[in-house]
TrEMBL record:
InterPro entries noted in UniProt: ThiW (IPR012652)
Signal sequence extent: none
Coiled coil stretches, renumbered: none
Keyword Membrane listed: yes
NCBIfam families: thiW
Membrane-crossing residue ranges in chain numbering: 6-26, 38-60, 72-90, 97-122, 128-150
Name recorded for this polypeptide: Energy coupling factor transporter S component ThiW
Entry keyword Membrane: yes
Pfam family, one: ThiW
Gene symbol of the encoding locus: thiW
Keywords associated with the record: Membrane, Transmembrane, Transmembrane helix
Length: 164
């Protein structure tokens, strides 16, 4: 897939993900869990690779923050999740590991990365253990949805048409 096509898909996925953020999210006090972001991360990881998956995560997090539907916690979770999922897919081509990479990257590593943000910007030090279960649950739901969608696309050979 050429760079123009990858960039176009990145923009489309980020736009759809941002638009749906007003409809599907779980409020968690000072943060918002957003399973559609995790679905987008896994799909981007498979279709676009690490650089574009991370770009999609940054674009979506930025647009959600600008629109008031996100929080600062969106950045570390989505970026780390997209990166780990896409690296695992690039190395293994295994959809299960890709989905698991999103859950570990966002749910555990991303939640841990929010700790300094919580301390520095919000004065909240409960973010470390408060967000791990929430981020893990949200990323599990999104990664599971992405896994199902991708399995259907692979079975119907539709993913080959999109990626070529």
């Amino acid at each position: 897939m050429n760079k123009t096509k990858k960039l176009t898909y990145t923009a489309i996925i980020a736009a759809i993900t941002t638009a749906s953020s007003t409809l599907i999210y779980i409020p968690l006090g000072f943060a918002k869990a957003f399973p559609i972001q995790h679905l987008a991360n896994v799909i981007s990881a498979v279709m676009l690779g690490p650089a574009y998956a991370v770009l999609q995560a940054i674009l979506t997090s930025t647009m959600r923050n600008l629109l008031g539907t996100g929080s600062l916690f969106a950045y570390p979770g989505s970026i780390i999740g997209a990166l780990l999922a896409s690296i695992l897919y690039a190395k293994t081509k295994n959809l299960e590991l890709t989905a698991l990479g999103e859950v570990i990257g966002t749910g555990i590593l991303g939640a841990m990365a929010t700790y300094p943000i919580g301390i520095l910007f919000l004065g909240q030090d409960a973010t470390l253990f408060g967000l791990i279960p929430a981020f893990t649950a949200s990323s599990f739901v999104g990664a599971l949805l992405a896994y199902v969608v991708l399995k259907v696309l692979v079975r119907n050979k539709a993913i080959d048409q999109v990626m070529n």
